[in-house]
C-alpha cells in the first residue's frame, strides 16, 4: 500500500504555512509517504509585497514545489505540483490538479480572482485540470457540486470542523468522487490524512484515475 498527501502547503509560497518545502518533504518521508502533491495557495493577495507582474507571480508560485521536488528526488519521494485557488467571489477554495499556463491565459490574471466557480470550471475542463473542492463545509464555505469534479470529503486539519458526514452526503447525492487530504500547514498536521492506494501514484494522471475509479482509501476518516 502507498500513501499520498493530496493537500499541503509550504512556506513562503503559502504564507500561512509553518514549514519550508524541505522540512515538509522530510517530515512526510519519515512518516512513510511515497507521494506528495504540493497545493500552495494562489489568490488575489499572492505576492502583494512584490511588484512582479502576474506572469512572474505565476512562475514564482511553483518555486515551493520545485524546492520540494529536489528534496523528494534525494529522499525517493515523488513530488507533484498543484494549486489551491481562492477567488474574491466566494469563501470557497478549489484544488486544481494539472494546473497549467493555458488555463490562466484563458481566464486572465488577475481577472480569474473575480470569476465565480461556475465561470472557471469550463476553462479548467478545457485545459485538462481536475477540480476538487477543498473542505466544502469549513467555516463559511459551501459546496458547489455542479462545478467541481470531486469533493475533499476528509480534511484532517485539527483546527477546523470538517462536517465529514454532511459532505459525504453531498458527494453521494451528486455522484461525485470523494478524496481526502491533511491540508498540512504545521508539523502537527503532517501525515494525519491523504489517500492510500495499492499502486504508487507517480503522476497527477495516476491520482485522477485512482480518484475516478474509486481506488482511493481515505486516511484519517476517524480523526474528523
Ligand atoms: Zn493556508
Ligand atoms: Zn489548503
Brief summary:
This protein is α/β, with parallel strands linked by helices. Helix content is 31%, strand content 20%.
Number of helices: 7
Radius of gyration: 16 Å
Mean of residue pLDDT values: 97
How many domains in all? Answer: 1
Instruction: Label the overall shape.
Output: globular
Under CATH, the topology can be stated as TIM Barrel
Question: What is the H/E string?
Answer: EHEHHEEHHEEHEEHE
Task: Note down, in words, how this protein is organized.
The protein has 224 residues and is of the alpha/beta class. Helices cover 31% and strands 20% of the residues. It has a single domain, classed as Metal-dependent hydrolases (TIM Barrel, Alpha-Beta Barrel), CATH 3.20.20.140. The chain has helices at residues 21-30, 54-61, 63-75, 101-107, 117-126, 164-174, 204-213, and strands spanning 2-5, 35-42, 78-85, 94-97, 130-133, 150-155, 178-181, 194-197, 217-219. Helix 1 (21-30) packs parallel to helix 3 (63-75). It is globular, with a radius of gyration of 16 Å. The model has no long low-confidence stretch (mean pLDDT 97).
Topology:
Blueprint: E1 2-5, H1 21-30, E2 35-42, H2 54-61, H3 63-75, E3 78-85, E4 94-97, H4 101-107, H5 117-126, E5 130-133, E6 150-155, H6 164-174, E7 178-181, E8 194-197, H7 204-213, E9 217-219
Parallel strand pairs: 1-2, 2-3, 5-6, 6-7
Antiparallel strand pairs: 1-8, 3-4, 4-5, 8-9
Helix pairs in contact: 1-3
Bound molecules: zinc ion (ZN) (2 copies).
One zinc ion (ZN) is lined by residues 9, 14, 16, 41, 185.
Amino acid at each position: 500500500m502507498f500513501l499520498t498527501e493530496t493537500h499541503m502547503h509550504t512556506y513562503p509560497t503559502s504564507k500561512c504555512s509553518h514549514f519550508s518545502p524541505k522540512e515538509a518533504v522530510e517530515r512526510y518521508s519519515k512518516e512513510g509517504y511515497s507521494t506528495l502533491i504540493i497545493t500552495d495557495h494562489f489568490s488575489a493577495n499572492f505576492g502583494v509585497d512584490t511588484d512582479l507582474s502576474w506572469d512572474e507571480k505565476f512562475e514564482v508560485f511553483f518555486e515551493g514545489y520545485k524546492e520540494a521536488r529536489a528534496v523528494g528526488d534525494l529522499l525517493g519521494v515523488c513530488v507533484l505540483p498543484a494549486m489551491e485557488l481562492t477567488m474574491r467571489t466566494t469563501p470557497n477554495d478549489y484544488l486544481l490538479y494539472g494546473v497549467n499556463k493555458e488555463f490562466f491565459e484563458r481566464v486572465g490574471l488577475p481577472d480569474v480572482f473575480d470569476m465565480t466557480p461556475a465561470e472557471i470550471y469550463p476553462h479548467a475542463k478545457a485545459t485538462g485540470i481536475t477540480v476538487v473542492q477543498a473542505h466544502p463545509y469549513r467555516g463559511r464555505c459551501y459546496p458547489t457540486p455542479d462545478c467541481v469534479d470531486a469533493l475533499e470529503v476528509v480534511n484532517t486539519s485539527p483546527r477546523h470542523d470538517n462536517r465529514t458526514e454532511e459532505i459525504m452526503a453531498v458527494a453521494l447525492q451528486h455522484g461525485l468522487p470523494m478524496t481526502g487530504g491533511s491540508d498540512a500547514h504545521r508539523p502537527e498536521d503532517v501525515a494525519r490524512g491523504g489517500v492510500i492506494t495499492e499502486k504508487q501514484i507517480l503522476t497527477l494522471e495516476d491520482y485522477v484515475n485512482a480518484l475516478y475509479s474509486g481506488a482511493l482509501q481515505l486516511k484519517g476518516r476517524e480523526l474528523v
